[in-house]
Amino acid sequence: MNAKGKAWIVAAIGAVEALKDQGFARWNYPLRSLKQHAETNLRSLVQANKLSSSSAMALSKVKDEKKIKESEESLRKVMYLSCWGPN
């Protein structure tokens, strides 16, 4: 959800709270349900973003480890050839 969508949700919740203050108690249940639904969706969106960023970090870490291992193997080969290779 983009920032514009979040702003609309916040504005809707603010309008709901203002209407509740003016005595629109009969709308209390539907408004509370709408507010709860919006909060739940935002919470799941935030959790999904956290999971995707943590999985991206894990993938990056695996790539870095592979690159380090390859460079160490290359250095090991160079050292071996410089010591024991044909002169």
Automatic annotation (TrEMBL):
The lineage of its organism: Eukaryota, Viridiplantae, Streptophyta, Embryophyta, Tracheophyta. It comes from the Eukaryota. InterPro entries: DUF3774_wound-induced. Pfam families: DUF3774. This is Wound-responsive family protein. PANTHER family: DUF3774 DOMAIN PROTEIN-RELATED (PTHR33090).
